[in-house]
Amino acid sequence: MKKKYIIILLILVFMLSGCTKYLQDDNKKRIINESTGQSLPSNILCKPTSEDLVEIYEKYNDKLDVPLEKLGDCAELKYYDAENYNGLWVQLIVMPLAWLIIRLGNFVGNYGLSVMLVGLLIRVVLLPFSIKMTKQSENMKKIQPEMAKLERKYAGKDDQESMMAKSQEMMMLYKKYNVSPFGSCLLSFIQLPLFFGFLEAINRIPAIFEGTLGVYQLGTTPLIGLKSGNYYYIILILLIMLTTYLSFKFSMNNGIGNAEQEKQMKMMTTFMIVFISIASFSLPTAIALYWVVTNGFNVVQNLVIKKG
Predict the structure, then answer these.
(1) CB 32 within 8 A of CB 296
(2) In whole angstroms, what is the distance from residue 29 CA to residue 200 CA?
(3) Cβ(150)–Cβ(222) under 8 Å?
């Protein structure tokens, strides 16, 4: 479970930095869109259209990875662009996900809605792995008493023969309870590239942050939104806190049953909720909506699995 919290923390850090490169002035200071509070990426995949963004990007055109004149319109973004971008990460992960967000956004008529739908689609694709991981966690709780007996049995025995015998008995317990010690690693290996690539794709499409969804401007951070008098951002922040809390609560319930580790997890959960609550004030609305929807999906998913 500690690994899971570390992974979540890495995702949060990526949301604020990650592989996205940010526009900087000559003093290495990030360029911020003052009207939204958003840090502006320098490796955008397509042209911005709003006057404010165009003016900023034209001013720092020489600092962009790809000059504006070589970029196409976001509405016509391609899923592959070997001329302007290279590397497997961008071509195989970021560009196809960006293309999917744009195409779906064009279809439904809103890029904010598209971000949420694609986020849910990724969750659905990963659902079989998530179900398996949840069941593994439940089995780990069942196996814990016998694992504790095994630890007591071999306490103080560190010779090679005892260690080998302990390993064999441990593997027998894993087999008995159908537990794979590498299951969570496999899920992380599969889902992290998709999640990281998806978040990077969002950050690198100006059209997403130029749009709106209801009362929310997708590029605006809740802090700027509240300062401008849009108090609907309070609802968004509360939703982030609530869905995060519920998601972590279910994760704790999937713990391995060790009292000391569960105590540590509770402390970590409290820290993460506070961390996310503070970070949510500086997240662009598009990413905040993605966070709420996917966390909500995770809560429903765990409820269904437990009842099943």
Answers:
(1) no
(2) 21
(3) no
Instruction: Please list the ranges in the chain whose pLDDT falls under 70.
Output: 1-18, 86, 181-190, 251-262, 308
Distance CA 199, CA 14 (A): 8
The three state secondary structure string of the chain is CHHHHHHHHHHHHHHHCCCCCECECCCCCECEECCCCEECECCCCCECCCHHHHHHHHHCHHHCCCCHHHCCEHHHCCCCCCCCCCCHHHHHHHHHHHHHHHHHHHHHCCHHHHHHHHHHHHHHHCHHHHHHHHHHHHHHHHHHHHHHHHHHHCCCCCCHHHHHHHHHHHHHHHHHCCCCCCHHHHHHHHHHHHHHHHHHHHHCCHHHHHCEECCEECCCCHHHHHHCCCCCHHHHHHHHHHHHHHHHHHHHHCCCCCHHHHHHHHHHHHHHHHHHHHHHHHCCHHHHHHHHHHHHHHHHHHHHHHHC
Q: Decide if 140 contacts 179 (C-beta within 8 A).
A: yes
Tell the residue number behind the tokens 């402390």, with chain if given.
267
Whether residue 240 contacts residue 280, with contact meaning beta carbons closer than 8 Å, is answered with yes
Would you say 280 and 237 are in contact if contact means Cβ atoms under 8 Å apart?
Answer: yes
58's CB contacts (< 8 A; 6+ apart) are: 68
The tens digit of pLDDT for each residue in 217-260 reads 999 999 999 999 999 999 999 999 999 888 877 766 555 455 66
Q: pTM of the entire structure?
A: 0.80
The tokens for 99 are 């293309």
Total residue count of the chain as it appears in this document: 308
